[in-house]
Design goal:
The complex is a heterodimer of chains A (420) and B (160). With 420 residues, chain A is of the alpha+beta class. Chain A is built from nine helices and 21 strands. The radius of gyration of chain A is 24 Å and the shape is globular. The chains are: A alpha+beta (420), B alpha+beta (160). At the A-B interface, strand 14, helix 5, helix 7 and helix 8 of A face strand 1, strand 2, helix 3 and strand 8 of B. Strand 14 of chain A pairs parallel with strand 8 of chain B, so a sheet runs across the interface. Chain B: One of its GO terms (molecular function) is dioxygenase activity.
């Protein structure tokens, strides 16, 4: 993997005042990466954990991750959702090895320290010592307190069946964190309907984690890289588009309305990925049926900084979880879902359209590939810069695809938090 | 079925498996859909989804037409880093035979070699197959590639 490659010495300074040039070292420098984890993943931000539908009953748990840290999402006896760090308070063992299951308590295998579903320490073997020759010897000191020695418990927010958590208990509310614009697009999908998990896909992408955020803040590439998007009009230059952000410009929504019919000449002139004579032998893969809750847009791609992408592209829905594994590699975990009240036909449709997405998907497999190519280019030239001037130098909201405004917006926020 | 006929049929099955593997390792994509029936199922699915009854697959095709669409995708639309793939497939184990339908299982390991790179283990799992005879030739009515590999190394473009 690329993350072990040696980065050459660099001044690590930001080029100029703007955000229309991004130096390669932001994707490769190990110290920068460490600081990103501390400032974005472990403080001041909400990270995606999972869906409530994955843990319907008390005792149900499923492992997840915040940055590089392993956490457990669990439903406590009182029905509330808890998120606990998967690190035993005793010797730091990452004790929970199963991916998911149901437990009455968590017990670390090493010395059998036991925790309840809220993470409170409930049992320590030989706490009061061992009786030998009528005398108690060993054990924990008499003044040892169980209280406050539990698993690290994260702050949890649940909205519309989606679970977020933060190691930072002083973090603002999830609603304030997302802001009204992004929240309205979040609620468009998660409006209280019960969710049904369809399954998972996992890929390890040899690139910096920010590149995936940037990929889904980049409306410029889909109609060029992805033949299916341009040829079938799902996302291309003549699509009605709007690019929106929260006040901090860390989160974004790419909103599009599908183009129907053949594109006019200038939309696809010179676009080699446009295949005028392409048609599907089996069109069921694009049997698109508009849904009332879309309220107009046929696609809304939400990037929630730092860890989540929420995909609604026609009838396909997924949560895409970014789990960094070093400056040059991240795991990308896809959870596809439907709604409980979908009929079988709609579920089949969502499943068939899932062929477009994921690590083999017609419009996603190549995103991972180009991210890998970018990372290869960054590796050896930390001071060289990406050129991000599509749509100007600023980061205002926009209504066309030839714009990199959302990426520039993200780097405004990134620079402020990182102090560079 | 007597023993001699059974041995003959098994030999034919082995031929189907060997030809399938040879075709996809050679990148002979046009041959790939021809190993299947018209209304076939082809599925590439993580073991977790399979074992928990979750229907999502990494790829899920419901007809020979969809396989031909995939071939077009590999050739024309899916931009990717080219690679060689090499399958090592075990002898198929017969799970059951039912009215001319063979239900089989075989282990596979796929190695990937990118230009200028070392060969790596790419995807490991098992095939769950249903084979039928169509106009004299054996075809896959269904082929599910259920993979153990917890992480796909970036992307799987070519058929397994």
């Amino acid at each position: 993997m690329n993350d072990t490659a040696i980065t050459l010495p660099s001044s690590l300074s930001w080029p100029g005042d703007g955000v229309h040039r991004v130096p390669y070292w932001v994707y490769t420098d190990p110290d920068t990466y460490r600081r990103e984890l501390e400032r974005f993943y472990y403080a001041g931000h909400w990270c995606y954990i999972g869906l409530e539908a994955e843990i319907p009953n008390p005792g149900d748990f499923r492992r997840s991750a915040v940055g590089e840290r392993s956490v457990i999402m669990v439903r406590a006896q009182d029905g509330s959702v808890r998120v606990l760090e998967n690190v035993c308070a005793h010797r730091g063992a990452q004790f929970c090895r199963e991916r998911q299951g149901n437990r009455k308590e968590f017990v670390c295998p090493y010395h059998q320290w036991a925790y309840d579903l809220e993470g409170k320490l409930r049992g320590i073997p030989y706490r009061r010592g061992i009786r030998q020759d009528g005398q108690l010897s060993g054990g924990m000191p008499a003044d040892f307190q169980m209280e406050g020695r539990g698993l690290t418990s994260l702050k949890v927010a649940v909205r519309g069946g989606v679970v977020f958590a933060s190691f930072d208990h002083s973090v603002e509310s999830l609603e304030d964190y997302l802001g009204p614009t992004i929240l309205s697009y979040f609620d468009r999908v998660f409006d209280g309907r019960k969710l049904k998990v369809l399954g998972y896909n996992r890929q390890r992408i040899p690139g910096n984690w920010k590149l995936m955020q940037e990929n889904i803040k980049d409306p410029y590439h889909p109609g060029l890289l992805h033949s299916w998007f341009v040829t079938f009009g799902l996302w291309r230059a003549d699509s009605k588009t709007s690019l929106k952000m929260d006040a901090h410009k860390r989160h974004a929504a790419m909103i599009g309305v599908r183009s129907v019919g053949k594109p006019a000449g200038d939309v696809v002139s010179g676009v080699t990925s446009y295949k005028a004579d392409m048609s599907l032998r089996d069109p069921r893969q694009l049997d698109i049926v508009p849904e009332e809750w879309w309220k107009g847009p046929t696609a809304v791609m939400l990037t929630l900084f730092p860890s989540l992408i929420i995909q609604q592209q026609v009838n396909s829905l997924s949560m895409r979880h970014i789990q960094p594994r070093g400056p040059g590699v991240f795991d990308f975990v896809w959870t596809h879902f439907a709604f409980e009240d979908d009929n079988d036909e709609m579920i089949q449709r969502r499943l068939l359209q899932a062929n477009l997405f994921g690590p083999s998907g017609y419009v996603s497999a190549d995103d991972g590939e180009v991210i890998e190519f970018s990372q290869m280019g960054f590796q050896e030239k930390p001071d060289q810069q990406c050129l991000l001037e599509m749509g100007g130098h600023g980061s205002e909201e926009a209504t066309n695809i030839a714009s990199e405004t959302l990426i520039r917006g993200m780097y405004q926020y990134w620079r402020r938090v990182m102090g560079v | 079925m007597n023993q001699a006929l059974e041995a003959q049929a098994y030999t034919e099955l082995l031929q189907l498996y060997a030809e399938y593997t040879a075709a996809i390792d050679a990148g002979d994509w046009d041959r790939w859909p021809e190993f299947f029936t018209e209304d076939c199922i082809y599925k590439l699915q993580p073991r977790e989804n399979h074992e928990r009854g979750l229907p999502l697959a990494t790829l899920h095709f419901h007809s020979k037409g969809m396989l031909q669409d995939r071939v077009y995708g590999i050739r024309e639309t899916l931009f990717h880093d080219p690679y060689y793939q090499r399958h090592v497939v075990s002898l198929p184990r017969v799970l059951s035979v039912d009215g001319g339908r063979w239900f089989l299982e075989a282990n596979y390991a796929v190695f990937r070699t990118k230009l200028g790179e070392l060969s790596t283990v790419f995807n490991v799992g098992r095939y769950l197959d249903e084979v039928v005879r169509v106009e004299g030739a054996l075809k896959f009515a269904s082929r599910s590639c259920i993979y153990d590999s917890e992480m796909i190394p970036n992307a799987i473009i070519y058929p397994i």
